[in-house]
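quick one, 1475 residues, struct below
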Amino acid sequence: MKLGATFTRVGHLLGLGDRHLDNILLHRRGAHLVHIDFSVVFDRGLHLKVPEVVPFRLTQTLVEALGVTGVEGGFRRGCERALGTLRANMGPLCALLEACLLDPGVDWEAEALAKVSNQAFAQALALRAFALRAAAVAAPLAAAADSARTALDAASAALGAYVQQFLAAAGTAAAAAESHALLQWCETTLGSAAAQEQRLVAEAQEGRAALDRMLVEAQPLAEQLQACLEECRAWQQRHSALLPLLVVSPPAALVAGPAAIDPAAAAAAGMSPLLLVTGHVGSGGLSSDTGAGSIVHVSLGVPPSHTPLSASLLLQAAAVDQQGQRLLRERAAAAQQLAGALQQYAAAAACLLGGVGYAGSTQHAHWLAAFQAAMDLPIPQGFERATELAPRRRDAAAATAAWRPLAAAAAAAVGLTQQLGSTSAALQLERVDVALAAADAKQRAVGAAESAWSTAAGATSAGSREAAAAALARAFAAFSEQEAANVLQLAAEHEEQAEQAQQAAQEGADEAAGEAAPAAALEGVQRLILGYASMAVAVRDATSEELFLASDGSNLLGWLSQAVQAADSLSTAAAELQLLLPPLMALLHSPAAAERVAAAVAAAAAQLEAANDAGEQAGAAAAEERAAAAAMQPLMMTAAQHPAVAALLQSLQAVQSASQLLLPPEEQPSLARQQLLLAGALVALWQELEEAAAAAEEQEAAAALLPWQRCSTALAAAVAEEVAQHLLAPLADALGATGLQLRAAAASLAHRAGLHAAVPAEGPAGRALGGPPDLVPFTDFDAELPGADMLLGGLEDELEAGGSHEQGQGGTQPAELAARQPGDAAGSQPPLVPFLDFDESLAGTEELLELEGPGAFYGAPGGSQEAMPWPSASLSKPLEEEAAKAEPGSSSSAAQAEARQHPALLAAAAEACGALAAVDAVQYVSALALQQCQQLRQRHCGELAAFQWRNEHVLPPAATDAAASLLAGAGLELSAAALSAAGAPLPTIHPAVAAWSLRSSRTELLQALAAGAGTLQALEAPLQQWRAQLASVAAQMAAEVDVAAPYASSALQHQLQHQQQWLQQAAGVAASLLELSQAVLQLEAACTADADAPPLPRGAEDSPGAQQEPAGVASAAEQYQAEQREGWQRYEALLRQMQQLQGEYSATQQRVQASDAELEQLRLRQLEAAAIKQSAEVAGSNAAANFAALALPLVKATQQLPQAVTRLLPMLAGARECAAQLAAARRAAAELAATECGEGSPAAALAAEAKQAAARLASSAACLRGLPAAVETLQAALLPARNRLLAGGRGETAAQAQAAQVVDALSAAATQLNSQLEHVPQVQGWLAGVPSDLQALAARADEAASALQRQHGFTLRGIVGLLQAAEPSPAEAGAAEGGPAAAAAAAPAFGAALTGSLLVTNAAVATAHRDSGVRLQHAKSVLARVRDKLSGQSHARGSGETTPADVAAEVQRLIEAATDRFNLAKMYEGWMPWV
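---
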């Protein structure tokens, strides 16, 4: 391969061509190619007849032989090395080549000159042969041409006029015949059109009659349609009046209290008694056995037993009271049940069903629109429109498919809300312990820092101050470095967990145990950043801000604000991602939408894979932009169609931006790279979501996570992956760099902080007095970071407040903190309370703490947070070294021990403070997320409940049970007031309806309505009988009272009147409730009339709370459902009849319209045929008149024509001889025209002229041969026609018939003769100039042959004789023109005579072409091309560029040119790879 590449480069450099497979051999032992035949060198291949446009041979065969790498492997490297070596040695190579080119012993042009001389000899031979032949035929040709011209003139004069007269008559006869044929066609067309018109008119009349019959037959159908229309209108008016009555203005029966229907409630409300002699239990505190509170007791003032009434009447009245009390209690219970169910239904109509617009979903609304359209529009259009508007039976599969996304979204919203609420309390309780631990650890670390700083400030010598201050800085540096190590350890743990999860997924293991693992990276980095920031601020405030300033004054913690911002943004973005779970679950459970999103994701993945396969190439930025655009295009298109995908893209972009905040500016990815990363993240996340949903569906419900939980884990894993990829590494670098810079600036800390001028006196806090002024806020961190004061400021105050009272070892316990009083000093701080009470005492904190939901987005519940391991052994080592360097008396052993423990204290404090800050941040974000999640739960559960209500009768039982369980477990209050508080739009409703809530399912609600309505209907007859008995007993009692106690008669009448009024009012309330319940049941039955079976009873009898209907009373719901189903079936049957009639009517109407259209077209054709007939009659009449005028002259001319033909034939005999002379001259000219000549040479011009002369001579000879034959044909046809004319009659009438016969007999001969006579003028012109033109052309050919002899130094001695001997005679030439057989018989061996001709070369002339001047010019040209190829200038000059190509670019250009298929297609076919 290397040898082939080297020879390819050398061959291209020397311009080696003619590389067909005969010149490339294969070495059997070495298995390499061997090139031979180097005659075509120095780019001579470009000047071949088929130029070689490729630089070297690299066809498909050779490329395949290079192996799998093709030209991109060792071949390219070999070419580049060879070209580089040749360029490096360009001087010696050019010098050697120049010496070879100028060597007089090597003739580089000999072969080329020989080829040129041979070509010149052939041209000269052809030119001299043409000159000899032209001279030989010149004189005979001139005589023959004159004779031929005379004969042609005679023929034109004798026959031209007759032919024109004949053709005119023939044209007139043809026009007359054409007109006659056209007249016949018109008559035939008009005749058939008349019969067809009769048929079409009959069909149209028959069709219209059928349409009229259909309209008559449709009258009963129209009457049925009108009846159904009125029925549907009545039902729809009833339904439309019900919902406003329930929702907008509920009747008094719904808003009235139980006192209007329940006797016990009426008595409790203080109303007049309702029973005759029986008092209500508890009425007035008396027993009902005494009759206290009865009508008799109230009227007479004494108990019934003490009244003067008869005992039988009292017993009868007591029995009536007992029966009435039982009946009234039963009616009150049923009425209250109906009232409660109707209130729930009104709430459902207001919350779920759209208010009064729900009436438009009944079957009657749809059938009414369909029937109205059928009545308003004509039959076919109206029936077709009715078919479009008619309701259709709902499909269970389609309803289930639409139910799944709603149920999935609702389940995700409910589960997410429950998860947030269940972990909120645990996180709040944990915060107390975390806060106490953080306060203790921070106090220890800050105290150690203050002590170290006080020691440095109080040191007496400069060395001691510098050593103490430097020890503090190095302690924080060690702490920073250890934090960096912890970040790296966090990254390693995340990578290990990811590998374990991937391995478990591949093995099919249960992933439930690792569901919290993806959140470890985000939670850990959040705790680390916030803890580090908290300790940095605390140590800075306790010491000096110079601690975190470099020697040049730059801030060492400038990156920390961005880190805190990144943690805050990531926490918010992770919460937003989790809030996308409901719409994402809905999208995943919508097969069509999920398939579209999956297709877009697959397209983006294919584009990303193609971009990765492309690798790093030249112009990578442009390629990256194109790849990013191609990958994002399908994702943006699907995001425009699906808001959930758009929100997912936006949240992932927020996560991506937050995780890249710590990247240095030079490492920030470009916009195209960010788009590629975003597309890759979305592709990976969507694939994870699909796998999670599929895995959850495959496993059993008891053993698998819910789909939304798996998807939640996938979303958290996506955030953790972004953190691990883009945040952990720069965070570790920043911490490590901070540690290094702190160590570098530690030596000058004391000087920069001004400790050299401090007074060694201490204040209350242990800080040196007279030290630096009050510290300003850490502007680079606290002031510039949005929200940092919220995250850290309150935390510092809280920790300082909690830690300022800590004493002894380990501080005080929480109980001691609660009971401990402040110090005795005046103006001390208020007493401390437990952190829980402290939090609740903050303004607005109570609402925040009561919100449900911890950081559910970070994996495991907050109560199980574990402290990250913080090794302390390595942290104390740097301080031990610093302590050893200090002077002996600078510090005590206790101070040294404290200095060694300081990094560990910082690490422990950072861990505790980070945990507390993370808990606070999670609480804050979770509270906001919980509010939004509750709104999502309300919305998605409402949508599911509404869909469940409308489609419960077609959904499978499993879906119905699952939805009921989900809605029951959600704990939602489905009321207008709750929805209005959540911000949901509601229709106009009554204030009382807003307080009602839906607590039951549709099935339970309808069961309650049916049971209550059945009970009220069953109680109507007993209540009427009881009221009749009551009236009878009351009348007897009034009569006895009038006799026995007339003073109480009026009071008794008043009480009895009140009793009747209340009973009438209660009966009205019950009737109103019964009517409303029946209307509701009818409305729901109308909404579910498309069901094949009634939707109510699925275990209705066994359901808890369902009342058993009285015996003999059918379920009202079943009755209404059967009634509505029967109506649906009648409407469907009517619709089928309408469709059948519409089909027949439309088919008949189409046939009538087709007949009318065809009839219209037929009439147009009739008009057209009539017009054509009229014009044909006129044209035929004119043609007949013209023919009559031409007939007699034609007959007379035909009779006289034979004498003229007889005289003309002898003159035409010489035309054939002239044709033979012309053929000999044409052959000579054709041979000269066939001679190969170079373009632009004199011989080429002569050949072109000879070609034109040969064409003219051939045409003239053909005319001279064809004219006599045409005349002879005319003579043969003329004699029989003349004999018939002579035998015929005389006169104009006979002349017309005779002229027609002449036209028929002589038509073919006259046409043939006319075609020959048309060429006569042109041939005469050619014959006039042929002799002189041929002689001039021969003279020029002889002169050109002589010039070629002189130029190339050869002679044609002996050739002239041979040519003259071989020249054929004119007769032989004519025979050759006559055909191959004649030529073989007449022509001598001309080719054999020329075989003895010799080429005599003039050596002197050949030597003159190889003199030194020509050689020098040739050498300069070759050397210039070689230098251009070596330097890369050949392509630059051809393309207009100024910069030569480098080695790689030049090799790439040459390989592309050699393998280009367009270039290979231009090569000579013998050079191709298949030869």
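Residues 416 and 1382 are 108 Å apart (CA to CA).
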